[in-house]
Each structure stands twice: as C-alpha cells, then as structure tokens.
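Notes continue from the previous slide.

Worked example: a multi-chain complex. Inputs as given:
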Amino acid sequence: MTVLDVDSVDTYYGPSHVLHDVSLNVEADEIVALIGRNGAGKTTTLRTIMGVTPPKNGDVRLHGDPIQGLSPNKIRRHGISWTPEDRRVFPDLTVAENLRIANRVEPDNEGTNRGTTFTVEEVYESFDRLDERRDQRAGTMSGGEQQMLAIARSLVGPPVELLALDEPSEGLAPKIVDDVRDMIERLNERGMTILLVEQNAHLALELADRAYILETGHIELTAPADELLADQDVLETYLGVR
Ligand SMILES: Nc1ncnc2c1ncn2[C@@H]1O[C@H](COP(=O)(O)OP(=O)(O)O)[C@@H](O)[C@H]1O
Ligand SMILES: [Mg+2]
C-alpha cells in the first residue's frame, strides 16, 4: 500500500528552480532514505511534501489523494509529521511545556485517523531521557536531548502515519547517533512509516529498506538500501563517502 506518492514535482524558491521532476514513493511500514550532498534539495523535498514550499508542477498524494496546496497544518492533521532540520524546540520552555504545546494541534474531521497516536505520557514511557528532564528548560539540554525532544514533539497530537525526519543525526556525537537510530527503529516497529533525510549515508542506508539519491535537484538513482551500501562507486560518486 502506497502511503506517499511524490509525482514529478518541480519546486522553486522565487525564480530559482530547485527540484526538477522529482518522483518518489513510500509504502506502508517502510523506512525510505533520501540521501545526497549538501544543497542537493533534500530539505526542499520535505518542504514540498509538507506544503511549506508547494510545488509549481506535479502532485504530492497521500493514499492517492492530492495534498499539494494544503497548508502545513492540514497536512500534519492528515498524518504526515515533520521534524525540521533546525530542531525547533522552544529553548526557554521546559520539556513538558514543549510537549504540551505540540500536543495542542487538534485532529480535525478531515484527519484520517490512520497512523500511530502518542500521548505525552507515552512519549515519556518511550524516552527515558525526556521523562527525567520534564522540568528542564529545553535550551539547557544537550544537542542529542534536544533532537529527541524535537522528534517527540512531532509524535504527539494527531495520529502520525508518516514521519519525515530531516537530518536527525546532524551534529550529534556517535553514541547519541546510536540512540537516534534505536528511536527510529522503535518507531518503525510501532507501525510508523518513515522518510529519512540524511547526509550520513551509512546511517540512513543501514536503517532504510530503500533509498533515493538526490543530486542537484534530480533523483539520480533509487535502489534497495543494502545494494547501495555495498556499492562503493555509488557511495563515492554521489555522496562523497566510502
Ligand atoms: N529559502 C531558500 N531560498 C532560496 N534558495 C534556497 C532556499 N533554501 C534552499 N535553497 C537552495 O535550494 C537548494 C537545495 O537546498 P536544500 O533543499 O536545503 O538542500 P539539502 O537539504 O539537500 O542540503 C540549494 O541550492 C539551496 O541554496
Ligand atoms: Mg537540508
């Protein structure tokens, strides 16, 4: 069953044409990685899906229904949740307050009720570190803890069917990257479908079922993740890693 279907989208920032005929799909229960060098258009692809920078041409479909042109809030209510690259937490508010605010997004009648629901208490049960820090101000936590809070914020509220993560490992120490990896695996085991944007190609390919490689706004290649992981030429040519 196809959850998300991005079909031949072109996305611009003003006159600047950034995504060229980008197509990708995500099936239920998959982890799909979108990888590519800095500036390739990964974040723009997520912004296109979320309605933040809607495409000029092409369709974004959720279970076959076009969603391009809907507001980011509506798209969230339809079950796609996004953890942006810049870890949007309120630094002066506590962990509990950050979660409470995120939880206030109400489902509406147009919501699908498909997906996984997390209450704030379930978040604390799943993420010990947040549980221990309920009353700590978010801005005083480590980068890894803030990233966990940012992901937790995108889980609460209306049910989440597809979680889109933008560079969750960025800037984190290796030990913390392992925690983020575990978190993504656990969410997927709980039934969440995941679109994972990463510059850390190894991490993304180890987690993912399939991957797309984006290069200067074009989908260059798509393949099962294990095939890409074994292909040194591809890793070096498109990702600059070995
Ligand atoms: N708000 C913006 N206005 C104009 N150009 C942008 C904006 N955001 C990103 N770009 C450009 O779009 C291209 C793709 O950027 P982005 O999607 O952020 O890439 P990635 O996430 O893969 O690093 C880059 O050339 C970048 O400079
Ligand atoms: Mg980016």
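Summary box: The two ends are 34 Å apart (CA to CA). The first helix runs from residue 42 to 50.
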